[in-house]
DNA sequence: AATCTATCCAACCGCTTTTAA
DNA sequence: GTTAAAAGCGGTTGGATAGAT
């Protein structure tokens, strides 16, 4: 016999939340914070279990939620992060300010998956979909063009190799293992003097704090913001995740931007002290990044290994592109 | 206008991880 | 070190709604 949920056991209310319930929960959290979720329903006068309250708050009532349709940038970022992280929805959502894991997951399942399949890409593996007959007879010299999502690039597996690797000095000599080295130009919002462009480095989906510090100046300790944000803890764990465990995270392993508030800015010296990381992530222009990456690759008549795929590039120009080692992780 | 079908998304379920006693 | 409770997470379900017939 199936185990009954806590709501069943306690005969608590289930299903959609009424506006009155939302108001009670909002008022309670506004006054007292959520504290221990299991005590929230009682204190707030709700006939719900704490778990249900928590979910309602995180997914719907939190004031910092960005609702509405996903932008193209967000979509591109989700696809890219999914290729790196898999179904780690909380970690993916943590990179999308104002989005919840549930929202990202729903968007993936209802929209992106379908779109990738239409373009001949397996959403689970980010590889070109297997075509039974073709797969059996495919050779490494076969050129297969497929539409991909990043900038509608053509995917052309070939045999030569181009390496895109623009590591900062701090990366030299460090074992990179399977991680990806990427230089990503970010637009850093800096108070007072507009937007400052600073390079930032991404490895296997994790931002390297050494590199950040090198290019952004010293990053002062940031006070932990006591909030119900679901994203902060997940990104902290991301710092400790396998992808990041090998030299990718600065000593201490913390990722300061995790705990940043929404309105933090730079200090007088232009040092980033606030949510520039989150803001920069929000401003990532993946399509532009890929465009430039592929242009560089094109000039070298690069190629993909069989089975590799890539997102990005120009619409009408077949892109020959490959990177050694871990960039296959992107697919 | 009525019915059917597909899609979306809020919420639930159950498992895992973390925390506190 | 052990155990129980709480929190976090990802997969799944089911109701609401839009569009098609």
From TrEMBL:
Domain (Myb-like) ranges: 9-61, 62-112
GO molecular function, a single term: transcription cis-regulatory region binding
Entry's localization field: Nucleus
Keyword Nucleotidyltransferase: no
Entry keywords, A to Z: DNA-binding, Nucleus, Repeat, Transcription, Transcription regulation
SMART domains xref list: SANT
Pfam families linked to this entry: Myb_DNA-binding
One GO cellular component term: nucleus
Domain named HTH myb-type: residues: 9-61, 62-116
Coiled coil (UniProt feature): none
GO biological process: regulation of DNA-templated transcription
Keyword set includes DNA-binding: yes
Record-linked InterPro entries: Homeodomain-like_sf, Myb_dom, Plant_SW-associated_TFs, SANT/Myb
Source superkingdom: Eukaryota
Protein name: Uncharacterized protein
Organism name: Zea mays (Maize)
């Amino acid at each position: 016999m199936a185990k009954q949920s806590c709501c069943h056991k306690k005969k608590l209310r289930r299903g959609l939340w009424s506006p009155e319930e939302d108001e009670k929960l909002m008022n309670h959290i506004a006054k007292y914070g959520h504290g221990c979720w299991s005590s929230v329903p009682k204190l707030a006068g709700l006939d719900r279990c704490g778990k249900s309250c928590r979910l309602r708050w995180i997914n719907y009532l939190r004031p910092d939620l960005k609702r509405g349709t996903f932008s193209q940038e967000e979509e591109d970022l989700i696809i890219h992060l999914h290729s790196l992280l898999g179904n780690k929805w909380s970690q993916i959502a943590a990179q999308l300010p104002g989005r919840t894991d549930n929202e990202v997951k729903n968007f993936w399942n209802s929209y992106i998956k379908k779109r990738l399949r239409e373009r001949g890409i397996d959403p689970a593996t980010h590889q070109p979909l297997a075509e039974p007959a073709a797969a059996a007879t495919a050779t490494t010299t076969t050129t297969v063009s497929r539409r991909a999502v990043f900038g509608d690039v053509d995917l052309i597996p070939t045999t030569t190799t181009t390496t895109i690797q623009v590591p900062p000095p701090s990366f030299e000599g460090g074992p990179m293992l399977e991680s990806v080295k990427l230089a990503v130009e970010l637009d850093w919002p800096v108070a007072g003097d507009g937007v400052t462009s600073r390079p930032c480095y991404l490895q296997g989906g994790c931002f390297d704090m050494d590199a950040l510090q090198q290019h952004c100046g010293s990053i002062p300790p940031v006070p932990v913001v006591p909030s119900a944000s679901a994203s902060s803890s997940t990104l902290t764990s991301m710092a400790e995740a396998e992808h990041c465990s090998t030299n990718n995270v600065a000593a201490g392993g913390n990722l300061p931007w995790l705990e940043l508030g929404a309105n933090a800015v730079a200090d007088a010296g232009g040092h980033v002290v606030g949510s520039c990381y989150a803001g920069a992530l929000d401003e990532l222009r993946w399509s532009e990044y890929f465009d430039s990456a592929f242009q560089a690759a094109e000039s070298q008549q690069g190629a993909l290994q069989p089975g590799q795929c890539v997102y990005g590039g120009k619409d009408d120009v077949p892109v020959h592109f490959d990177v050694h080692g871990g960039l296959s992780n992107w697919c």
